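Re-run with default settings, no changes from the original entry. Doing this only to confirm the output is reproducible before filing.
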Amino acid sequence: MSDRKDFTAGLDSDARKSPRRVVFVTRRTSAQVKTSDEDQLQTYPEVLFRAVLAIELLAIVLVVISLLFNAPLESIADASRTPNPAKAPWYFLGLQEMLHYFPPVVAGVLIPTLLVIALVVIPYFNINIEAEGLFLKDHRRRLRIFYAVAVLLSLFLWFFGVYVALVPTLIIAGLMVLAGYSSPHSSSRFQRYLASKPLSYWVMTWFMFEMIVLTAVGTFFRGPGWSWVWPWRS
């Protein structure tokens, strides 16, 4: 009769079924753990050094700009003399431009809230989990939905006369149409690039494009009474 005994320890996630796990190591054997090396990126000094270098370069650039150019400050505020137009800081000029067309509740609360909710919720859809192109699956159905949304949004902006927001919307819609009729195997590199972009990319691109255009219009093209003026005319 052989004195050799073989012991097997299994792995189980059920603590009630397998409350204890015992490993027997004999004299002639040793415990072995099979692992695989994974790609690693050290935070120090590689990443930390790059971050410190970027911060230092940015600080130097800001100091140089502050030495060469004066801040665009106006005179001391006077309650008896309100500037016309009274413009918000540049990062709020896009919102102020929207207030010119829509009621405050719509422009200041409803539209920004819906955009933020959309940017938060969209990545959880199946079409974005794999980061695939928007029109690569269910091509016809998604094109029909896109056409319906684009037409309704364009009519909405046209009805309220928001032409400064309508133009960027039509440009992004045109690029999306080109993406819808392109494929990852297109001969054009630009078409392959558009075809590979998911819905979250298009929503974010449209949102950023709108904010840039609205901010530029509010900065350079709005004069007294928030009327339209050309920047090269006094």
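The helical segments are 43-68, 93-99, 104-121, 126-129, 139-159, 163-180, 189-195, 199-220. DSSP finds eight helices and no strands in the chain.
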